[in-house]
Q: What sequence folds into this?
């Protein structure tokens, strides 16, 4: 990768968007922030500023929440049928696909990931999420039940939207996460104040344009760009918000839960993970090599599900680690706009320094580098795909979430696989196809496992489990569980 090849000339549509004045979407209008604050946006491949967006503060949060409350309680949105909401959500999905090339380009500018991934993965997933949740809009039914002596009483309930939902999304999959938060809330009939990550606000703003074009009533979706410690903090504690949906760090998630306790606000959290891939002695070695490589290096390791620990039987260690290290050294790291690029930069200078610090800490703690360990080029936030061997519990590279392209390998010589701290989000196990009872997971002191799943597109024997430290409730799934509540009907 040559530094001179990093700069990408935007298309006409993307260039026009980048060059415009970016404001806040409040009550169906793009408005300037009350305090006039601004937030620079950088291309992580070049470290150059590519746009300036508005920086919302507490006063802007007040306005957005008030607009969302009006739209929820007295606007046309509340009167729409489920079928009408479904048509609007489906229309937004269509608009995403119609503008997919521009959105993918903006996502790559903003986040750094390869353009082929943003186009083939992020845009398609976002569109399909909208269509999936559009189907829920007509299926949000209450329940009835007999109580007391048989036939004596019949209880009826209706399922209603929660109300105003504050949504704070991360920077690793900006568009997907925005849609994953918005779609169930809109299907249920909620109104939303969405706060995108300060490092990657661009596709959320473009999504705001498409929401208006689709015909959503004013105030149903409000979008506030800005810093987490100002706009995000104000939104998370706002008394006019009925629920907070947050994806991000465990530390911030804990603060949100504590703040929500004051007014018993509902909370959905999707937090960090330190996910182990556990390889048994009889595993399919080639599948392990493919799956482990994809599991840690996809999206430059910036995923809560990244398989950042490889816990492997000693008999397979050298063969598997050697092959993964060879693949890691061959990975093309570069600008997301280079068709040859396989992984792009990490998202920001702060993340580059964080990951580099973990790599240095691993070396200082005595772990050995089997691949990588340094930066790529002199400009941009590019890191080599990195593999540590000789890692042990107690090292920060084993115990803490790095959120970068760094794999820690831990060898074992028995199947006494006890959980380590902090708990991971996903547990994965590689073994031959299951034809009889699965017994090994029971010996890990963990709850039930799911097998015959996939990591990315690579078939492998996986076992997945959501752990308490990974989140509170489900960030997606169905609109009933994340965006509605039951109310009894008096008789």
A:
């Amino acid at each position: 990768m040559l530094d001179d090849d990093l700069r990408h000339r935007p298309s006409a549509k993307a260039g026009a968007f980048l060059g415009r004045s970016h404001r806040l979407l409040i009550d169906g209008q793009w408005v300037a922030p009350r305090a006039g604050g601004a937030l620079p946006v950088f291309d992580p491949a070049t470290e150059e500023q590519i746009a300036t967006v508005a920086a919302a503060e507490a006063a802007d949060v007040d306005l957005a929440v008030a607009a969302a409350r009006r739209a929820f309680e007295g606007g046309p949105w509340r009167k729409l049928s489920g079928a009408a909401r479904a048509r609007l959500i489906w229309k937004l999905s269509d608009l995403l696909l119609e503008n997919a090339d521009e959105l993918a380009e903006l996502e790559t500018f903003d986040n750094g990931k390869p353009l082929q991934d943003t186009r083939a993965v992020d845009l398609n997933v976002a569109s399909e999420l909208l269509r999936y949740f559009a189907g829920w809009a007509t299926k949000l039914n209450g329940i009835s039940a007999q109580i007391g002596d048989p036939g004596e009483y019949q209880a009826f309930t209706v399922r209603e939207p929660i109300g105003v939902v504050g949504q704070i999304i991360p920077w690793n999959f900006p568009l997907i996460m925005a849609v994953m938060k918005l779609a169930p809330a809109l299907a249920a009939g909620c109104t939303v104040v969405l706060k995108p990550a300060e490092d990657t606000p661009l596709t959320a703003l473009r999504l705001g344009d498409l929401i208006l074009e689709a015909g959503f009533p004013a105030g149903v979706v409000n979008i506030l760009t800005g810093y987490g410690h100002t706009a995000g903090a104000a939104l998370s504690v706002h008394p006019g918000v009925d629920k907070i949906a947050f994806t991000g760090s465990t530390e911030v998630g804990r603060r949100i839960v504590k703040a929500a306790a004051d007014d018993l606000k509902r909370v959905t959290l999707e937090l960090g993970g330190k996910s182990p891939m556990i390889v048994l002695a009889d595993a399919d070695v080639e599948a392990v090599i493919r799956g482990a490589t994809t599991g840690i290096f996809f999206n430059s390791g910036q995923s809560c599900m990244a398989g950042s620990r490889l816990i492997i039987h000693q008999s397979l260690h050298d063969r598997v680690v050697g092959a993964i290290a060879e693949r890691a050294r061959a990975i093309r790291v570069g600008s997301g706009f280079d068709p040859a690029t396989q992984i792009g930069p990490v998202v920001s200078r702060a993340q580059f320094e964080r990951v580099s610090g973990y790599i240095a800490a691993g070396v200082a703690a005595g772990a050995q580098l089997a691949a990588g360990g340094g930066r790529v080029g002199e400009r941009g936030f590019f890191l080599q795909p990195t593999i540590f061997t000789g890692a042990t519990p107690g090292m920060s590279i084993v115990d803490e979430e790095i959120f970068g392209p760094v794999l820690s390998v831990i060898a074992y010589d028995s199947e006494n696989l006890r959980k380590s701290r902090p708990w991971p989000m996903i547990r994965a196990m590689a073994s031959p196809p299951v034809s009889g009872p699965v017994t090994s997971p029971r010996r890990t002191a963990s709850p039930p496992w799911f097998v015959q799943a996939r990591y990315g597109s690579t078939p492998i024997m996986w076992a997945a489990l959501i752990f308490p430290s990974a989140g509170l409730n489900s960030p997606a799934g169905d609109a009933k569980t994340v965006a509605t509540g039951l109310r009894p009907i008096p008789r």
Q: What stands out?
A: The radius of gyration is 23 Å. The chain has two domains: 3-271+472-488, 276-466. The longest strand covers residues 153-161. The CA atoms of residues 180 and 476 lie 6 Å apart.
